[in-house]
Amino acid sequence: MSENAVFSRNKVLTIDTMNPKVKNVEYAVRGPIVQRAVQIEKELREGVKKPFTEVIKANIGDAHAMGQKPITFFRQVLALCSYPELLNDNMFPEDAKSRARHILQACGGSSMGAYSASQGIDCVRQDVARYIERRDGGVPCDPDNVYLTTGASDGIVTMLKLLVCGEGASKTGVMISIPQYPLYSAALAELGAVQVNYYLNEEKCWSMDLRELERSLAEARKHCNPKALCIINPGNPTGQVQSRQCIEDVIRFAAKERLFLMADEVYQDNVYAEGCQFHSFKKVLFELGPQYSNTVELASFHSTSKCYMGECGFRGGYMEVINMDPEVKAQLTKLVSVRLCPPVPGQALMDLVVNSPQPGEPSYTTFMKERTATLSLLAEKAKLTEEILNTVPGITCNPVQGAMYSFPNISLPQKAIKDAKALGQAPDMFYCMKMLEETGICLVPGSGFGQKDGTYHFRMTILPPTDKLKILLAKVNEFHQKFTQQYS
Amino acid sequence: MSENAVFSRNKVLTIDTMNPKVKNVEYAVRGPIVQRAVQIEKELREGVKKPFTEVIKANIGDAHAMGQKPITFFRQVLALCSYPELLNDNMFPEDAKSRARHILQACGGSSMGAYSASQGIDCVRQDVARYIERRDGGVPCDPDNVYLTTGASDGIVTMLKLLVCGEGASKTGVMISIPQYPLYSAALAELGAVQVNYYLNEEKCWSMDLRELERSLAEARKHCNPKALCIINPGNPTGQVQSRQCIEDVIRFAAKERLFLMADEVYQDNVYAEGCQFHSFKKVLFELGPQYSNTVELASFHSTSKCYMGECGFRGGYMEVINMDPEVKAQLTKLVSVRLCPPVPGQALMDLVVNSPQPGEPSYTTFMKERTATLSLLAEKAKLTEEILNTVPGITCNPVQGAMYSFPNISLPQKAIKDAKALGQAPDMFYCMKMLEETGICLVPGSGFGQKDGTYHFRMTILPPTDKLKILLAKVNEFHQKFTQQYS
Lengths: 488, 488
Fold this sequence. Notes:
The structure is a homodimer. The first copy, chain A, is α/β, with parallel strands linked by helices. Chain A folds into two domains: about 20-65 and about 370-485, Aspartate Aminotransferase, domain 1 (Alpha-Beta Complex), CATH 3.90.1150; about 115-355, Aspartate Aminotransferase, domain 2. In chain A, about 45% of the residues lie in helices and about 10% in strands. Chain A has helices at about 5, 20-25, 30-45, 70-80, 95-105, 120-135, 150-165, 185-190, 210-220, 245-255, 280-285, 290-295, 325-335, 345-355, 365-390, 415-420, 425-440, 465-485, and strands spanning about 55, 145-150, 170-180, 195-200, 225-230, 260-265, 300-305, 315-320, 395, 405, 410, 440, 445, 460. Chain A has a seven-stranded mixed sheet, with helices on both faces. In chain A, strand 3, helix 8 and strand 4 (about 195-200) form a beta-alpha-beta unit.
């Protein structure tokens, strides 16, 4: 080969030679619309004139970025764990110091810089187990079934990894709700599994429907091997909180149809609507009696990123596995060991979430005040969002019963749909892109989460500060009317 | 189906129905021998009598767990970032405060609790780029080519994910050194790629050999499509530091043979032997001129876990990609966005590593003192380990030029090999297991890293405190002689 031929070669790794499964991955929450929002922010900084002065990012459940303050106690303990010299300082309350000592004594060399056990620090897993027992009214939890994770996403992907196999008609199918959080579709694409859609019932406040589950499963069995059923409760992007009855039905269905259950419960403290209550899948499973609690396989997921703490950046989380085959569990433990351990500061934070200040401890009052204030404010903003959106002609919004998002239905004029299609864009992407360019508001189109054909939505977080949220909602109202007029 | 049939069903997820690729994963560094070590620790705590009173874990490069102290400055800044109230406190030096402000102003809502950009915080990537430029004598680095990661492992697995595709004879092959760090073999097993072994030359101090690369590649091309070549320098588990000439040869080889280069350089500050120096693959690539620097695709990896900081628990790291096809880069950015972002405390720590105290700043003297003390001590222990091991009849140890491990060759008597095989164990696993049971020393058998057929090794970290390291080496000496006698 001539020198020239050697050097004028094409790349080894090109779009044509790369992993095709990775190409199939889509993740709308940080997709093209968010990339454009970042560009616009840059243009604004460079002085480009726009019909607005700031981009409002309502695309992602990132509470601190939207001004929510961290819980003081959590951050005091994290500072103490980071720099244990501070244990000698008088500025920290005693309970913060004792929590820091509790965590540090469980770290190698008493340092957060040591690797932990791959499954997570022992004492943190024990604290998680006690938290789950309290939460579920005494249903027992074995710390050996608890795995700490790098956020909930990590746990979910790990579980899917274990489940997926086969080719052709025996390829693993995984049932996910539509609309869904796109981590699921992304992970399934990457793993080459079959995404099996079941639709939430928008007319009934995005509830799960047993007949729809049956339809979806029967359909899927014609071309793949459905093995797992994923549920997000409270719902993302849809904000519903499932009733106890519904959860019971889902568990009976999973038992009957031999499906591994995956319950994404990261919004378990984010329940706002009157009459709604969070029921963990595990608790309901055990209430159904040993026929179910001894057999149905369940993995449930929690995180430090949502609820009242909103500590996304620390990437803390856990999963609990129930009725997992011991041989599979050994494989799971081996698999997580390859990545050594979840980040220790995230593990420490997870410990604080499940082992928060108790009545009588010095930090209790402040902790409760901060927690309650955050959750009340979220409840208020959930209500506000639903109410204002429902005043807009052409927008219909289900109650935001929980989680951090509204997912309203938007009517789009035929001409807009036609124009979008001519551009090769989903109509609600076309709509959201226009809204971003004209108002600076960054939302995620419903097509990024999935929706019934011919319906259109967007996901909007309820996280901006109340003042800003009101401005945002007024702008959405104005834009929607203008858009409707323009394309009618 | 009867009620009974419903409930007496087998598990959905069993060892037979799970992902077979996961079953193929092996990770010796936290494998069966470490699990046994943890058990023994528990037995000791419960009062079980053993011929030793403590387990010494020399299986993993976990510096803080072995008593190494964190760098004061790093931990001060992390405490400030965790609890910014401390910025008002007089106990912290001004440079620590200014670094904390630098990091916090780049975080959403000035909080480490916000998600960062998926590629990592902008200012941290800029600081990384400047660090790389300084390290490489001015070779330019574009921050857009820098991706922050969850430890180096995360970056390596992500790159392999992009590269792997095909089936049968067109399946992607990835060349890795033998001995290797088992993350590589584990990731390749999970991805279903072909592991292509090239052997390091133990006789020449574990150097890379061009002819061996050629042999390995030619062999591999008969049954797969080799696309990438991975190098660990300084070496893990083998501790060699590659010469500039060798790196040049490898780059020319990769250019000629169209291989994507992956350079694992996490031990770049861990160079101890006289006459040895760390050369980054990127620097050498650019010194070879534009024919190479404009064409050869390279990803290099660094981490907060090793060198003088040893902050494994924070899971911080970065990768730099050179000459990556822009379309592939867009796919990479999309892929990492699915997992939202690397842990922000780890990103902050990475920033401190690449932007450490400078002459004239208040923390400079202490920082340099701590850094130098740690590296000197490691150099001393590297020498000590090599020297003592080489006094043992039947053990031959190459110089520990860099990294954190010795990987001595051990002669095992035929009877031991036979007994091991009868138990279905690798002979060096049999040896290490016996050593653990009799002395409490936890090492990793060479078979977990790969080695030439018929040779046996173990990997031992040089991290224990000098006193303990001496005891450990004396015990290894004694055990080896006893073992040899017993099986001769």
